[in-house]
Amino acid sequence: MNWIPWLLAGWLFFVGIYGVISSRNYVHLVGCLAVVQSSTYVLLLSVGYRQGAGPPIFFHIPPGRAVDPVVQALVLTDIVVGATISALLLALALQVHKVKGTLDPDQLRPLRR
Q: Can you tell me the distance from the alpha carbon of 20 to that of 35, in angstroms, rounded to the nearest whole number?
């Protein structure tokens, strides 16, 4: 079993989490969340990969050993969801900057009732 994709997924996850913890800007925070989510892409693809297997297309050939197409569909869904969430968070950060003039979480006051 090849451990490189698993190590890469773990490294991307911890680098992204470190960026989320140390972020002092909302745009940087959204970028770090995208890095964390990219670790899930690598992890899912490494789960569905089979050594020596071909693409899951059986058109004029008998079915043989193929990679799992469900995992590939999950990764595509994960990419779409990640892009949607990133766009929503960046739109919220833009609105915060328009209203408050800053994107630093320490300079923003809590909401009043």
A: 10
Query: If pLDDT is split at 50, 70 and 90, which confidence band does 46 have?
Result: confident
| pTM attached to this predicted model | 0.80
Which domains, and CATH codes, for the chain? 4-50+65-99 (1.10.287)
Interval 69-107: pLDDT, tens: 888 889 999 999 999 999 999 999 999 999 888 888 888
- In the block, residue with structure tokens 């892009």: 83
DSSP 61: S
**Cα end-to-end span (Å), the chain:** 56
Contact 67, 48 (CB under 8 A): yes
